[in-house]
Each structure stands twice: as structure tokens, then as C-alpha cells.
């Protein structure tokens, strides 16, 4: 039986550049580095940056992305820091809770989101998506 998300590995084209982005700009904790990668963390998240010389931007855009939680009190300062660093945005927020959608140096789609699954489900119960059904807890 699966117990949860173990870690995320992102293929990157330039480890020092990605390390600066995730550690210095987003302020993930630096755990270890090596020639071709790095381990960083947040409470409950293990992130691996792995050098991949074949890394290219995706050919088609889709909604696949990685969302980081951020407290409401810290959201505006984070968005300001990202905008001042000229980090590209890839989408406007269209859902419950404050969100900022941005790209890392390799084009990985990221989101900083205020809220959690419980707040999303509350909002969806008030304004459900087309065909949405809710299920009781087991």
C-alpha cells in the first residue's frame, strides 16, 4: 500500500541555476549537493534536482504543475520577490485561494497556493465544477 508522496525529482539543465532558484529565491532548505544534482526540502517535501542534458521545454502546454503551500501572511511578499526577480508567470488564478503560477528556470510549471484540500472542497461544495460529485469519508 502506498503511504504518500515520497519525493519529486525535476530534470534540470543547469544545477547551479536551479539551485539558486529553489534555495535562494523560493527558500527551500538545502540538504545536499553533488556534481549532477541537489536535495532540498520543505516540511513534508523532498525535492531532488537532477541534471539531465536532454532537458527541453515541453512541446505542448498543459495544466501539469507542482504547487507549494504558502501562508496567507507570506503570500504577497513571495509574489513580490518573484516578480522583482522577473520570474515568468504562466497562468492567472482561477480557483479558490490565492495562487501565483510561475515557471522555474527550466520551464517547470509551479504554483504558490494559499489553502489546502479542505478549503478547496468547501469552495467546490459552494460552487461545484460541472459533473462534480463528493464522496463520504471512509
TrEMBL record:
The keyword Transferase applies. The lineage of its organism: Bacteria, Pseudomonadati, Pseudomonadota, Gammaproteobacteria, Pseudomonadales. It is an enzyme of class 2 (transferase). One of its GO terms (molecular function) is glutathione transferase activity. Keywords: Transferase. The keyword Transferase applies. It holds the Pfam family Glyoxalase. Its EC number is 2.5.1.18. InterPro entries: Glyas_Bleomycin-R_OHBP_Dase, Glyas_Fos-R_dOase_dom, GlyoxalaseI/FosfomycinResist, VOC_core. Residues 4-115 form the VOC domain. This is Fosfomycin resistance glutathione transferase. PROSITE patterns: VOC. PANTHER family: GLYOXALASE DOMAIN-CONTAINING PROTEIN 5 (PTHR21366:SF14), GLYOXALASE FAMILY PROTEIN (PTHR21366).
Amino acid at each position: 500500500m502506498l503511504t504518500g508522496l515520497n519525493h519529486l525529482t525535476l530534470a534540470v539543465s543547469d544545477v547551479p541555476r536551479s539551485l539558486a532558484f529553489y534555495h535562494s529565491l523560493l527558500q527551500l532548505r538545502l540538504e545536499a549537493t553533488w556534481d549532477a544534482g541537489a536535495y532540498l526540502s520543505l516540511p513534508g517535501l523532498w525535492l531532488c534536482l537532477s541534471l539531465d542534458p536532454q532537458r527541453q521545454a515541453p512541446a505542448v502546454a498543459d495544466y501539469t504543475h507542482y504547487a507549494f503551500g504558502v501562508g496567507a501572511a507570506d503570500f504577497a511578499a513571495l509574489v513580490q520577490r518573484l516578480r522583482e526577480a522577473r520570474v515568468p508567470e504562466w497562468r492567472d488564478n482561477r480557483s479558490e485561494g490565492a495562487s501565483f503560477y510561475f515557471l522555474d528556470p527550466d520551464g517547470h510549471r509551479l504554483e504558490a497556493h494559499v489553502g489546502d484540500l479542505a478549503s478547496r472542497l468547501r469552495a467546490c461544495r459552494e460552487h461545484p465544477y460541472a459533473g462534480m460529485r463528493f464522496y463520504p469519508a471512509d
